[in-house]
Amino acid sequence: MTRPLDIVPDAGSDGVRGLLFRRSIYALLIAVSAGMMIARIARVESSDPKSQTPFLSANDRSRWATIRSLGDDGTYVIDHIIFNEKGNRVRGWHTIDLVRHHGSDGEQHYYSSKPTLLTTMLAGEYWLVKKVTGANLAEQPGYVSRLMLILTNVLPLVGALWILSRLIDQLGTTDWGRIFAMAAACFGTFVTTYSVTLNNHTVAAICLVVAVAVSLPIFRSDCRAWWRFAAAGLSFGFLAANELPALAMLALAGAALLWKSPSRTLIAFLPAVLVVVVGSLITNYIAHGDWRTPYAHRSPGDNWYDYPDSYWLKENLRGIDIG
Questions:
Q1: What is the 8-class DSSP label of residue 289?
Q2: Cα end-to-end span (Å), the chain
Q3: 220-232, pLDDT tens digit by residue?
Q4: Which of 193, 265, 312, 319 is a Cys-bridge partner for 269, taking CB atoms 3.0 to 4.6 Å apart?
Q5: What three-state secondary structure class fits 90?
Q6: Are 297 and 303 in contact (CB under 8 A)?
């Protein structure tokens, strides 16, 4: 019987002592990496000295505005978040990653242009944080956002690094080679540096590690448990939902699993992928009243990016103040 991840490293010539030594080093590397990420999150500040929020870019402000609006007001509309009562931009909250179109009330409103699935899930996390701590993004943006970054980026990434350490132990051939690979994963990529912002790349990297971990035994050990195909579908599907180029990886993984076990792929892998697809479509429709994403609305007469002072119009590309 195999373990859940079916990653049983070879103890090598040093036996159990060598295995325990490597795992101790892995644990130390992961702990230091996690500590560095938390320290960065605790110290992060906006580049705008007038801003009261610790958000670093228009990219994450776009997501935070929607999370706040959903968690506090139950709507994807962010007009009241990015503009004050006088119609002036709110520093620290305004963003260039915007679209404007008619809402359910027939009026023009502003919305984030970011994909809706991840943002909606994080709005649920924000709602729980509010219930547990009593804090909210409107009054304590620094505290709430830092706490959510730890919950969203750091803790899942620590889990992914632990899973990756088991993969490295299984596939590596020497102690130093394995430790070097683990050190590179903990300190040698942009994934850990992205932890200070709310982004899709960290989530995608975590999904990739999980997807490889559950899929590899299917090919290496001929382990065909149904849950592996379902977990692979969810992780590869969510990976593609967060990184569009990963659609190619999703298709390749689906083809490989179909070749390995057509029945399990069709009955477990494919429905799991469809869960992500349906979730993406439904949240997008609820947010925008349209099955197409905001990125698809760029044609004349249907350009959601065509609004006053839009950064995305050629005449406004220079000199715009996005504060």
A1: S
A2: 58
A3: 988 889 999 999 9
A4: 265
A5: coil
A6: yes
Residues with Cβ within 8 Å of 170's Cβ and at least 6 positions away in sequence, in order, are: 7, 8, 9, 10
CA distance 127 to 135: 10
Q: Tell me, what's the pLDDT at 222?
A: 84
- Residue 198 makes CB contacts below 8 A (sequence gap 6+) with 55, 60, 63, 64, 67, 122, 145, 148, 149, 152, 153
Which of 44, 262, 23, 53 is CA-nearest to residue 139?
Answer: 53
Q: Report the predicted TM-score, pTM, of the whole model to 2 decimal places.
A: 0.88
Please give the sequence-ordered ranges of beta strands (E in DSSP) within the chain, or none if there are none. Answer: 98-102, 108-112, 298-299, 302-303
How many whole angstroms separate alpha carbon 126 and alpha carbon 206? 20
- What are the pLDDT digits (tens) for 84-127? 888 888 888 989 899 999 988 888 999 999 999 999 999 999 99
Q: What is the DSSP string of 47-69?
A: SSTT-SS---SHHHHHHHHHHHH
Residue type, 7: I
pLDDT band at 319 (very low <50, low <70, confident <90, very high): very low
Q: State the Cα–Cα distance between residues 278 and 261, nearest whole angstrom.
A: 24
CA distance 299 to 7: 50
Tell which residue, 286, 319, 259, 298, has the closest CA to residue 120: 286
Q: Which amino acid is at 178?
A: R
Whole-angstrom CA distances from 87 to 105, 137, 294 are 20, 20, 24
Question: What is the amino acid identity at position 175?
Answer: D
What is the rounded distance in angstroms from the CA atom of residue 110 to the CA atom of residue 118?
Answer: 19
Contacts of 238 (CB under 8 A, 6+ apart): 203, 207, 276
